[in-house]
Amino acid sequence: MKKIQFFDTTLRDGEQTPGVNFNTEEKVQIAKQLEAYGIDVIEAGFPISSPGDFEAVRAIAGAVSHMTVAGLARCRKEDIDRAHEALKDAADPQIHVFLATSDIHMKYKLKMTPEEVLASIKEHVAYARSKFEKVQFSPEDATRTNKDFLVKAVQTAIDAGATIINIPDTVGYTNPTEYGALFRHLRENIANFADVTFSSHCHDDLGMATANALAAIENGATRVEGTMNGIGERAGNTAIEEVAIALHIRKDFYQAESSIVFNQTKRTSDLVSRLSGVSIPRNKAVIGANAYAHESGIHQDGVLKNPDTYEIITPSLVGVDSNSLPLGKLSGKHAFATRVAELGYDLAADEMNDAFKRFKVLADKKKQVTVDDLHALIAGQTQEK
Ligand code: KIV
Ligand code: ZN
């Protein structure tokens, strides 16, 4: 089994979600919960970006004990110094230095030549290494970077002292086949690939962030960056809870394990949703309200006989109380009778048949039949007698 580490950037990339702004107290609350959830590294913020971010990184560095605490920095000495200052109380600090390497970013955003970019990586990674034991370098927009140049940039960073290389799919452009091949290419062309931690960092613009992270793991990445509930710029980042549970449920395939404490999943997700104000879609994998709900009669019958028929994740594994069998027009007699019995009614067979027929008529007119509807339906039937 290989060990996969989780790097959570809910408080940095996640806070880049339009409309999201955590205060320091909220950030510390989230950081402590992420620690309880088993996250290995937390990116607490971008210290030079604002006094508030600096303060939050400092507060988190002093508040957590097991997690590595990372701060983001551009390839600028003042960014690195500010991150160093913010992280000085951290038990295990890490710096995350980044610089774009794609043609489009170098030409239009940075206005730097490829040679200047390589020189800046060399200088600033070395400077970061003079202050930190753990230095991560990210070639921003790596998936749209010329592959030969990406190898040069990554090798330059490693030679200058980077201990972690993160490969960002900054604009969510890649797909699992291509992203997996990119990690293979790096594995085959970077001299000391095995001495360095390689990490994935994906965005979800094409809906492939989770699949891309898993493809990276299949091809040599041992760390995954993401956010809780997948919040982040535009369509968001890789949802950590999805990758973590996929590795666990498909351990047979990935042959990997992590330190994630699965029964803290729902609690962590709920906290981030509440403090970010970003609600979770009902059909969201792992943590959506419908993820453990079975509506059709065939599914309900199967689940009542054995949950494994339609549930690959046991709700309690992720801290969800139980599955649910909402009653709607597609529901069958098994689920209906079970719910009626749970409500305390002991109906004879003909009464049950009659009640089920009335239920079907009602269910055709409503999205969902509630407990109150059931009481009314059975009370009406008893009164008619
Ligand atoms: O998406 C991205 O490229 C980033 C970098 C700062 C790593 O978030
Ligand atoms: Zn990002």
Automatic annotation (TrEMBL):
Record keywords: Amino-acid biosynthesis, Branched-chain amino acid biosynthesis, Cytoplasm, Leucine biosynthesis, Manganese, Metal-binding, Transferase
Functional pathway: Amino-acid biosynthesis; L-leucine biosynthesis; L-leucine from 3-methyl-2-oxobutanoate: step 1/4
Top-rank taxon, per record: Bacteria
Record's catalysed reaction(s): 3-methyl-2-oxobutanoate + acetyl-CoA + H2O = (2S)-2-isopropylmalate + CoA + H(+)
GO molecular function, one term: 2-isopropylmalate synthase activity
Cofactor(s) annotated in UniProt: Mn(2+)
GO cellular component terms, A-Z: cytoplasm
Residue ranges of every copy of the Pyruvate carboxyltransferase domain listed in the record: 4-266
GO biological process: L-leucine biosynthetic process
EC number: 2.3.3.13
Presence of keyword Metal-binding: yes
Positions with a binding annotation for Mn(2+): 13, 201, 203, 237
Function: Catalyzes the condensation of the acetyl group of acetyl-CoA with 3-methyl-2-oxobutanoate (2-ketoisovalerate) to form 3-carboxy-3-hydroxy-4-methylpentanoate (2-isopropylmalate).
Quaternary structure annotation from Swiss-Prot or TrEMBL: Homodimer.
Similarity-based family: Belongs to the alpha-IPM synthase/homocitrate synthase family. LeuA type 1 subfamily.
The name this protein goes by in its record: 2-isopropylmalate synthase
Lineage: Bacteria, Bacillati, Bacillota, Bacilli, Lactobacillales
